[in-house]
Amino acid sequence: MAFVLAVSVFVVLSHNNYFLLGDLNEPNNDDVKYVRSAETLLEGGPLTYINLDSGTEPSAFIMPGMPLLLAAFIGPLGQEGGITAFRLFQCLEQVACVYLLFLIARRVFNRRIALVACVLAALYPPDYFSSGVILTESTFRLLCMLLVLAMMVAVERRKLSGYIIVGILTAAAAYFKPQASLFPAVLLFLWLRDGYSFKEMLRYAGAVLGTYVLLLCPWWIRNWNTFGEFILFTRSAGSPFLLGTRIKYGLPPAGFFDAYPQYDPATIFKGWDSSAIDKGLDILRYGFSHHFWTYLHWYTLGKLEGLYIESYYWRPIWPIQRPFMDAMQKVLVCVTLVGLVSALVRERFGRLLPLLLTFAYFTALYIPFVAFGRYGYPTIVFMLPFTAYALCKVWDLLRRRHTVSGSAGEGYTFK
């Protein structure tokens, strides 16, 4: 862990604003928009986000977690010092994630595989990029790992306090990315595995849900007071759904605009509210009706490729350049698949459930929406125990062969 902290801090301090995706003076990307939102809060303004407006009006385009977290650093240290401090905080998050990976992998497999998984995490370049970039992924990944571990412990101990902690962590994750809100539903499979009674399930589900609702109430009250309506999470769900229909960043297939003349190629992928959802549904209707196999491939293998083959490594760190990282990512996924299949064959299925359910939940969640490396990144860490499993099994096989070969060699004496 000391290695991870040292490398993360060195990368962050030596590269500094190299990791900025946009311009702080004219916010034009998510990272600098988060900074502007935090500064507006510190100036006594409302939660804002530069989207289709000037960025000064109250907004429900994003959840408030990231602006509030940034404000905690920028407030006492100013913009430059606050951003640096936030990046150093993300370095600590990376270290915490390595330790949590060890705890999770040890519970699922054993100490040896857990240690190998941690070594893999320490050598994974996107983690160091994530320490420097001002986005939600590092914090969200940490919260997800805490949530998975808390769920495993709660299921084992069967105490109400454990499930209250699960509710707290779910709400905390939702304040950064609302996608986490339904994740505790996977507890049902763990409860069935461990033979929970129906009464126990109801009791603990109520504890999780009640805690979650209580902690989300401030957000719902703020939205009601500001906009006069109930907004569950954000108003921006239409944008990722619409963009998710875009195959390889291209326009809808030929003939779409003849079938739907109300749309313009120049603006078809603009929008973020209910109108964006309507556009996306029309594209899907036409696409699956006229280009079924193309769209089926896109909504299966295409989305998986975007999530896990495309690396979250937008600012290369010397000496590892993007093409090499892309090749490493493909090797990682291939070895992980070997480990996954091997574990499914050799290990008890119930033991693997926490990792399998986490991977399945977040993968299925992004299939209908835009899917690329940034969104797959928080899930990659849950694949590493299977990667480590494959490497350990290969090592054991090679060692056995060497032992057998050596023993066979000792059995013959030539004179």
From TrEMBL:
Which chain regions cross the lipid bilayer?
A: 85-103, 109-126, 138-155, 161-192, 204-221, 352-369, 375-392
| Subcellular location(s) of the protein | Cell membrane
Q: How does it sit in the membrane?
A: Multi-pass membrane protein
Entry GO CC? plasma membrane
Source organism phylogeny:
Bacteria, Bacillati, Bacillota, Bacilli, Bacillales
Q: Name one Pfam family in it.
A: PMT_2
Q: Does the keyword Transit peptide apply?
A: no
Q: Which InterPro entries match?
A: LipidA_mod_glycosyltrf_83, RgtA/B/C-like
Whether Acetylation counts among this entry's keywords is: no
Main location group: membrane
Ranges for domain Glycosyltransferase RgtA/B/C/D-like: 69-215
Q: What is this protein identified as?
A: Glycosyltransferase family 39 protein
Q: Name one GO biological process term.
A: lipopolysaccharide biosynthetic process
Molecular function terms from GO: pentosyltransferase activity
* Keywords linked to the UniProt accession: Cell membrane, Glycosyltransferase, Membrane, Transferase, Transmembrane, Transmembrane helix
